[in-house]
Design goal:
This protein has 387 residues and is mainly alpha-helical. The protein contains 13 helices and four strands. A four-stranded mixed beta sheet has the order 1-2-4-3. 26% of the residues are buried. Bound molecules: zinc ion.
């Protein structure tokens, strides 16, 4: 049986429809943000300048306070523009019976998400315009250093400060699973600082697992929707995959990739900003005029769209590496395969999305590819058990 190739399981019309709608929702969200930024920047209307003047009045002429007010205005307007799509996304999850969340809980999450975005966004723009004001030519290099420092701090704080705003976490108490993890970790010659039970079931029926944090906060989180419905061997296979991310230092590598793309982004933003000012393309004439923030955001948005296929390809490479690590560290491939099948069904995932969808949108290889890789590995093992 182990030698038989797995049949490619066709996706249900329901799974295809659900994933297609989700993709279009993502594209619409992006489109709204893109058009909003363009409209703000149109020279003759000068809406960004109008908002800046309003922010200056709200901030009593104080630069930092006015900048905060300007950001607040931008975030409020963009939330008003996108709340309809957000609500549609919430309804979609309920319609496909993937969510257990009530409207009030969803609304509360939206409010918390907005406030978290406002706090993080304020730190970012204050740092940004501080460096622009102090070093108009080289701000981009200095801002990059500050941003990376902020990014590393946030990666450390996220599991203990950010995630608990939305979900509850508790240390995993299952003795059998802890013992399995210790054995897996020893085999990897490494130590994971903790495994946490993630109470996802309060909001969702989907299952998930992840390696999060950095340094002292690095931990594996496992959704209760997974812990309560999967066999110990299946959970072990999921743990082994997450441990694979740990062993291959994927978080650190992702930060390095992030550093390179952010540096390119800042350099491009600086170039565009100086060009726009030299050519009088927009209403703002000074580099420290924060009415140019939509232009900086636009550069980021365009760049992240262009880089998306590259970053997703890199992520899929890491996922394949973590999968291979899992194959090697578990005693049998079967639980890996059954856990993948369960996850696909539970999350209404597309097992075989079209090639271009996978290439552009997916951070993980498709389920059918991951299963095929597991089968191939298992066949190679049985052909050459000592290899
Ligand atoms: Zn993974």
């Amino acid at each position: 049986m182990a030698d038989a190739p797995i049949p490619v399981q066709a996706d249900s019309p329901e799974a295809r429809r659900y994933n297609r709608i989700r993709r279009w929702l993502g594209i619409a969200d992006f489109g709204v943000a893109f058009v909003f930024l363009i409209v703000l920047l149109v020279h003759d209307a000068a809406w960004s300048g109008w908002l800046r003047d309003l922010a200056h009045r709200m901030g009593f002429g104080n630069y930092s306070l006015s900048l905060f007010m300007y950001l607040l205005l931008l975030l409020v307007i963009s939330k008003v523009l996108s709340i309809g799509l957000d609500y549609y996304g919430f309804r979609l999850e309920r319609q496909y019976r993937l969510s257990t969340q009530r409207f009030r809980s969803w609304l509360w999450d939206e409010i918390k998400g907005f406030l978290v975005g406002l706090v993080l966004g304020s730190i970012v723009v204050e740092l940004l315009y501080f460096t622009i004001g102090q070093w108009p030519q080289y701000w981009w290099a200095l801002a990059w250093v500050l941003f990376m420092a902020l990014f590393i701090v946030m990666a450390q704080l996220a599991p203990v400060v950010l995630f608990p705003i939305f979900y509850k976490f508790e240390p995993l108490e299952d003795e059998d699973l802890r013992r399995r993890l210790v054995i897996l970790s020893q085999r990897a010659g490494t130590r994971v600082r903790g495994v946490y039970r993630w109470r996802l079931s309060e909001k969702s029926k989907k299952a998930n697992a992840a390696l999060t944090g950095l340094g002292a906060t690095r931990r594996i989180i496992l959704a209760d929707t997974l812990l309560d419905n999967y066999s110990p061997e299946e959970i072990e296979a999921v743990l082994a995959h997450e441990l694979g991310h740990h062993v291959h230092r994927h978080i650190l590598k992702s930060i390095l990739v992030q550093a390179a793309t952010t540096l390119a982004g800042f350099w491009a933003a600086n170039w565009v900003l100086h060009y726009a000012i030299d050519q009088h393309l927009f209403e703002f004439v000074q580099i420290s005029d924060f009415a140019n923030l939509p232009l900086l955001a636009l550069v980021c948005v365009v760049l992240s769209l262009l880089l998306m296929p590259v970053l997703n390809a890199y992520s899929r490479f890491n996922e394949r590496q973590a999968d291979r690590y899992a194959f090697e560290s578990i005693s049998s491939i079967e639980p890996f395969i059954s856990s993948m099948n369960k996850l696909a069904a539970q999350n209404l995932a597309e097992r075989s999305p079209s090639k271009w969808v996978e290439w552009f949108f997916q951070s993980h290889p498709s389920i059918s590819r991951r299963l095929a890789a597991a089968e191939a590995w298992s066949r190679a093992q049985s052909a050459n058990p000592h290899g």
